[in-house]
Design a protein that fits this description.
16% strand, 3 domains, Rossmann fold, Arc Repressor Mutant, subunit A
Length: 382
């Protein structure tokens, strides 16, 4: 479910950052709500920054009782109102809890220990991979991590998108353990979402650029090899492939030739993922000929088109399993609808999520950013 703010937040940290974006200046530093009365805002910020540093650095450990307001007033020469406003801000941000006469304590799980932002460049409704990641991220966890999903994070300048502004607020107030991007972060790489130091980050992307970000990439070659080997084991000979427009990147014809398959450029087809009609029509075209002249094996390389392509196959009257075997891409556990029997092969969104979170934990402990791939698996291998 889309995250939303319960109330409009006009905190000065966000306002300062957005103003600087419009003026093409570097992002503003962290700014916490100014005191309503008492010391100047500069003094307020100075004291607040030092107190928060005690928590972030671990000097004030989880559940530790912090100095009293009177002690803090004396140490910093600040008014009770200034100290109270800082304490209130820290309570609101989840760093402290106030327990009346028992004093004020650091939270057992302060936000910079447990909060991970899961960042999507769009809404997940029209992308099955993002939908799978979003779905598994909502499942209950036993490790204490809190995954906060943010959507439509794609603006390198000013935006009124509440999710992006909330994400920037969390970053500037140091309320995050890490950030997990579900796509390359270039759309926001001039904002604190990428530029703010001290936050471990992981991105689902090809291993290139962004040396400070751990990178995780689905292994397309493992998908290709397992799909072809499966069709070979089933005795198929004439293979077609339908997928994303960049399908030629994996040199399908060369790989199929190595397996002894018959194919051709007209049987390697890429199509738009946003329109279902071409998938139906393309399938009808592939299977309109007589049995001995059409494919007896089909690989669908993107789960966003499985529904439309298999609908066209069903309408073509092909008999299963005598005349055709279909390998269909899937991002488990979100299985796309299919009008014909298929063998599902793809990537486990749970594995992807846990690998990324593992990289973030390791970086939090001081490890360097890393690069890794996720291998394709059949449904019965999960």
């Amino acid at each position: 479910m889309r995250q939303s703010l319960k109330k409009k937040d006009t905190s000065s940290d966000t306002v300062s950052y957005l103003r600087s974006s419009v003026e093409n200046h570097p992002p503003a530093p962290v700014v916490i709500h100014p005191a309503k009365r008492g010391r100047s805002d500069d003094r307020f910020q100075e004291i607040a920054a030092e107190l928060k540093k005690n928590i972030i650095s671990g000097r004030w450990k989880p559940e530790m009782r912090v100095p009293t307001r009177r002690e803090l007033c004396a140490k910093y020469g600040a008014s009770p109102i200034t100290i109270q406003n800082i304490i209130d801000q820290f309570v609101e941000d989840g760093f402290l809890k106030s327990d009346g006469r028992n004093g004020t304590h650091v939270m057992k799980t302060p936000p910079h220990h447990v909060n991970v932002a899961l960042v999507f460049p769009e809404d997940v409704a029209h992308n099955r991979f993002w939908r799978a990641i979003s779905t598994v991220a909502k499942e209950g966890r036993t490790d204490g991590l809190k995954i906060i999903q943010r959507f439509n994070i794609k603006y390198n300048g000013w935006t009124d998108n509440p999710d992006q502004n909330a994400l920037i607020r969390d970053i500037l107030r140091k309320r995050l353990m890490g950030i997990f991007f579900t796509s390359p972060p270039y759309l926001v790489d001039k904002t604190p979402i990428v530029t703010e130091h001290g936050i471990p980050r992981c991105a689902l992307m090809a291993p290139e650029g962004y040396s400070e970000i751990s990178q995780l990439c689905p292994d397309g070659f493992s998908f290709q090899e397992k799909a072809l080997a499966c069709l070979k084991a089933k005795g198929r000979k004439r293979i077609a492939v339908v997928g994303h427009p960049d399908i030629s990147n994996l040199d399908w014809l060369d790989k199929m030739s190595a397996y002894g398959f018959v194919s051709g450029p007209h049987w390697i087809q890429g199509m738009s993922l946003g329109d279902t009609l071409p998938g139906c029509n393309l399938a009808r075209l592939l299977f309109h000929d007589s049995r001995d002249k059409r494919p007896d094996g089909l690989i669908i390389t993107d789960d966003n088109i499985v529904e439309s392509v298999t609908k066209g196959i069903a309408e073509s009257g092909v008999k299963f399993p005598q005349e055709l075997d279909v390998i269909a891409h899937c991002n488990f556990p979100c299985i796309p609808p299919s009008s014909v029997p298929v063998v599902r092969l793809g990537y486990d969104a749970r594995e992807v999520l846990e690998l990324g979170l593992g990289f973030i934990r390791a970086m939090k402990e001081g490890a360097s950013p890393t690069k890794a791939t996720v291998k394709a698996v059949f449904e019965d291998e999960l």
